[in-house]
C-alpha cells in the first residue's frame, strides 16, 4: 500500500527497489497522488536515504525515459551546477571548452527558487531555441561541437515532474534527491565525463560543507556504477557570482568575459578552473596544460567566436538582448570596505523584479535585474552607487544594509 511506503520512510527505514519503483512509477502513471508524493519526498528530506536507495532511485529515474548515445562523436563532457545567484558559468565555459576542441552537449534547466537557470538566460537572446530534438542535437554537435538545450521531454521525464513538485513543497534541499536528479540526467544525456560544481552557502540549495562533501561522494559513486568519470568542485555561494544578476544582464556579462574584457574577479577564476577541469578530462591531459589551452581560447577570440556560432546555430541574435531602460540605484550609506554582499537577498530581489519565478506559471521578464558596481573587498565612499537595479514596474528596494555589509576602514593609531 502506498501509505505503508510513506510510513516506512517516516520511521527512517530503508525502502526496497520494488517499493521505490512502485511509488515513483505509480506517480508517473497518476496512481500516486501529488500529496502522497509530497509526503514521501518530505520524509526523504528528513530521514535521508541509504546509498542503495539512492542507486535504486537513480536507476528508476534513468529508466523512465530515453538514454542518448553519442559514442560516435567522441568523448563528451558535461558540467552541472547545483545552482546559485548570478551563476552564468555554463554560458562562459561551454564555448571555451568547445573552442578547445572538446565537444560539449549541455542539457540545462530553468531557474529554481531564487537561483537562475541557464535555459532562461539563453532565452533572453531573442530567437534562441532551447527545445532542440535529438536529431538537431546530433547534427549541431557534428557541425560546431557545442549544444546547450533544455532537457528533451524524453530524457528522465520522471525528474521533470518530481522536480516541479519539489520546488513548491520545500523538498529541493535533500542530498539523495539532488544526487539522483542530477546524475540520472547526466547519464541518460549521454555524457562520458561529468563535472559537477556544488555550490555551498546562503544563496545555494546546500548551505554546509558536510552535506556538500556527501553529495560529491554520492555522485562519484553513482558515476562509477555507470562507468562515467565524475569530478566535483565545491564553490562558495554566500556572495553572488560576478556583477550581474538577471537574464539579459548575465548573458551580457558572459559575453564580456568571453571577449576577455573582464579578467580579474572570482567568477573569471572559477570559470577558468572549471573549464580547464573539463578540457583535462576530455583530452586526458593535466590541468596545467588544459589551463593554457583555455586561456589561449579566450585570448585569441576562439571562445567568443564559438559562443556566436552557438547562438547563430540555435536561431538567436545578440542584437535582440534587451535591458530595461528604467533604473533605480542602491547607494552606499557609509564609507568603508564591502565585507559581504548577501546573495540570498539579491536572489529574492531579482525574483521580485520579475527575473525569476515565484510559481510555475510565472512568465520571466528577461530585461530586469541587478548590476553590482563593487564586489566584496572593495572600498566605497558614502553616496557611491553600489548597484543599478533595472526595473519594469514599481518595486520597493531593500535597504542598503540588508544587502551590503560595509565596515569602516581601520586606521592605525599613531604612536605618540
Ligand atoms: N539541480 C538538479 O538538476 N536537480 C536538483 O535536484 C538540484 C539541482
Which residue ranges are poorly predicted, with pLDDT under 50 across at least 5 consecutive positions?
Answer: none
Q: What's the main sheet like?
A: 4 strands, antiparallel
Tell me the fraction of residues in β-strands, as a range.
5-15%
- Give the class-level CATH name of the largest domain: Alpha Beta
The total strand number stands at 12
What's the order of the H and E elements?
HHHHEHEHHEHHEHEEHHHHEEHEEEHE
Class by alpha and beta content: alpha/beta
| Percentage of residues assigned to helices | 40-55%
- The CATH topology of the largest domain turns out to be Pyrimidine Nucleoside Phosphorylase, Chain A, domain 2
Written account of the structure:
With 416 residues, the protein is an alpha/beta fold. The protein has three domains: 2-48, Transferase, Pyrimidine Nucleoside Phosphorylase, Chain A, domain 3, CATH 1.20.970.10; 71-319, Nucleoside phosphorylase/phosphoribosyltransferase catalytic domain (Pyrimidine Nucleoside Phosphorylase, Chain A, domain 2, 3-Layer(aba) Sandwich), CATH 3.40.1030; 322-407, Aldehyde Oxidoreductase, domain 3, CATH 3.90.1170.30. Helix content is 45%, strand content 15%. It has a four-stranded antiparallel sheet with strand order 6-9-11-7, with helices on both faces. Helix 5 (89-99) runs parallel beside helix 11 and helix 12 crosses helix 13. The model has no long low-confidence stretch (mean pLDDT 94). The site of uracil (URA) has 8 residues, from helix 9.
Amino acid at each position: 500500500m502506498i501509505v505503508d511506503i510513506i510510513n516506512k520512510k517516516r520511521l527512517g527505514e530503508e525502502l526496497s527497489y520494488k517499493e521505490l519503483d512502485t511509488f515513483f512509477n505509480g506517480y508517473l502513471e497518476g496512481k500516486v497522488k501529488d500529496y502522497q508524493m509530497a509526503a514521501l519526498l518530505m520524509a526523504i528530506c528528513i530521514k535521508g536515504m541509504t546509498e542503495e536507495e539512492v542507486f535504486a532511485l537513480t536507476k528508476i529515474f534513468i529508466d523512465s525515459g530515453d538514454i542518448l548515445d553519442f559514442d560516435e562523436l567522441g568523448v563528451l563532457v558535461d558540467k552541472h551546477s547545483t545552482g546559485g545567484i548570478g551563476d552564468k558559468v555554463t554560458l562562459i565555459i561551454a564555448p571555451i571548452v568547445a573552442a578547445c576542441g572538446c565537444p560539449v552537449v549541455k542539457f540545462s534547466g530553468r531557474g529554481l527558487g531564487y537561483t537562475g537557470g541557464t535555459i532562461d538566460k539563453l532565452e533572453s537572446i531573442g530567437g534562441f531555441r532551447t527545445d532542440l530534438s535529438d536529431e538537431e542535437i546530433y547534427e549541431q554537435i557534428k557541425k560546431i561541437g557545442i549544444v546547450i538545450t533544455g532537457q528533451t521531454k524524453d530524457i528522465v521525464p520522471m525528474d521533470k515532474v518530481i522536480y516541479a513538485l519539489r520546488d513548491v513543497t520545500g523538498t529541493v534541499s535533500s542530498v539523495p534527491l539532488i544526487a539522483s536528479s542530477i546524475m540520472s540526467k547526466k547519464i541518460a544525456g549521454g555524457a562520458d565525463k561529468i563535472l559537477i560544481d556544488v555550490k555551498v552557502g546562503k544563496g545555494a540549495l546546500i548551505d554546509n560543507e558536510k552535506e556538500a562533501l556527501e553529495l560529491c561522494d554520492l555522485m562519484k559513486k553513482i558515476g562509477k556504477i555507470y562507468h562515467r568519470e565524475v569530478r566535483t568542485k565545491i564553490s562558495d555561494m554566500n556572495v553572488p557570482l560576478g556583477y550581474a544578476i538577471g537574464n539579459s544582464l548575465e548573458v551580457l556579462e558572459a559575453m564580456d568575459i568571453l571577449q576577455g574584457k573582464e579578467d580579474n574577479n572570482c567568477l573569471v577564476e572559477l570559470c577558468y578552473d572549471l573549464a580547464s577541469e573539463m578540457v583535462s578530462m576530455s583530452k586526458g591531459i593535466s590541468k596545467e596544460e588544459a589551463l593554457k589551452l583555455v586561456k589561449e581560447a579566450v585570448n585569441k577570440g576562439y571562445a567568443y567566436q564559438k559562443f556566436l556560432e552557438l547562438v547563430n546555430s540555435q536561431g538567436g541574435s545578440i542584437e535582440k538582448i534587451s535591458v530595461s531602460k528604467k533604473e533605480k540605484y542602491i547607494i552606499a550609506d557609509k564609507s568603508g570596505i564591502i565585507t559581504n554582499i548577501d546573495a540570498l537577498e539579491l536572489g529574492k530581489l531579482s525574483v521580485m523584479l520579475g527575473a525569476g519565478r515565484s510559481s510555475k506559471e510565472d512568465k520571466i521578464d528577461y530585461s530586469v535585474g541587478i548590476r553590482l558596481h563593487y564586489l566584496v573587498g572593495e572600498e566605497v565612499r558614502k553616496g557611491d552607487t553600489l548597484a543599478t537595479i533595472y526595473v519594469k514596474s514599481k518595486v520597493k528596494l531593500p535597504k542598503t544594509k540588508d544587502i551590503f555589509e560595509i565596515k569602516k576602514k581601520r586606521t592605525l593609531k599613531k604612536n605618540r
